[in-house]
Write a structure and sequence with these properties.
Low-confidence stretches: none
Number of helices: 9
CATH topology: Rossmann fold
Distance between the termini: 12 Å
Number of domains: 1
Strand content: 15-25%
Bound molecules: 2'-deoxycytidine-5'-monophosphate
Shape: globular
Structural class: alpha/beta
Largest sheet: 5 strands, parallel
CATH architecture: 3-Layer(aba) Sandwich
Helix content: 40-55%
Length: 240
């Protein structure tokens, strides 16, 4: 029997650089990428389209099983992967500031978190995956408490807001830096104070502060760590 996919859990607050680091790491290692924030965002988008309030647990619970959320390879090489809802590409629609706050709101609902666990695990454990880079808030604490490598990627609040502001500006979003900082504070507060699966490092996570590291430096460190652990795992298996 072949070994199960090697799971890399990358958790941390908004704007710490998780998305870019996870994408580059997955490409470098030939691993699947599971952006779990995109899944929560897609749930928020579907709810808002159907007129379901983000705290209406009964209707959210009824909506979830019918949602078909999938990832597809990027349209252009090096681009972000596509997020599909049914057959529709919602990659852009889920990245607006209202959907950021919507995702933060639906992700605080226990019915939503429970309803998405199976999907997240299935995407990572697909038999064709040699490994998976999973990006989120609770991967190392809840989704994969036995992940092969757990990273908690963080950065200073000002740095994170600056990065997010630059990203939104590039997309032509009119938000000001102050608005971005304010949204980020609200999201950080929601995400770390909620009762279920709050944002916090797993006890065995390695904490990496990206304030002083560039993206290439972060990816390099992570890739080496995974390669060392993968080689050790393969050597152990060969001895069996
Ligand atoms: O990573 P992101 O900004 O795309 O995530 C959107 C929201 O989803 C974020 O506010 C927190 C929530 N989230 C979560 O609660 N658990 C995850 N594993 C991933 C995201």
């Amino acid at each position: 029997m072949s070994a199960p996919p090697f799971i890399v859990a990358i958790d941390g607050p908004a704007g710490a650089g998780k998305s870019s680091a996870s994408r580059l790491l997955a490409v470098r290692l030939g691993f699947a990428l599971v952006d779990t924030g995109a899944i929560y965002r897609t749930v928020a988008l579907a709810a808002s389209r159907q007129g379901i309030a983000f705290d209406d647990d009964a209707r959210l619970a009824r909506m979830l099983p019918a949602l078909q959320i999938r990832f597809a390879p990027p349209v252009t090489p090096g681009g972000g992967q596509q997020v599909l809802l049914g057959g529709e590409d919602v990659s852009q629609a889920i990245r607006t500031p209202p959907m950021s706050l919507g995702a933060s709101a639906v992700s605080a609902r226990p019915v939503v978190r429970a309803g998405l666990l199976e999907l997240q695990r299935r995407l990572a454990l697909a038999p064709e995956n040699r490994g998976a880079v999973m990006e989120g808030r609770d991967i190392g604490t809840v989704v994969f408490p036995d992940a092969d490598l757990k990273i908690f990627l963080t950065a200073g609040e000002g740095q994170r807001a600056q990065r997010r502001f630059a990203e939104l500006q590039q997309k032509g979003d009119p938000s000001t830096l102050d608005q971005v900082r304010e949204d980020q504070r609200r999201r950080d507060k929601n995400d770390s104070e909620r009762a279920v699966a709050p944002l916090k490092p797993a006890p065995d996570a390695r904490i990496l502060d990206s304030s002083e590291l560039d993206l290439a430096g972060v990816v390099e460190q992570l890739a080496r760590e995974v390669e060392t652990r993968l080689a050790a795992r393969e050597a152990r298996e060969a001895r069996r």
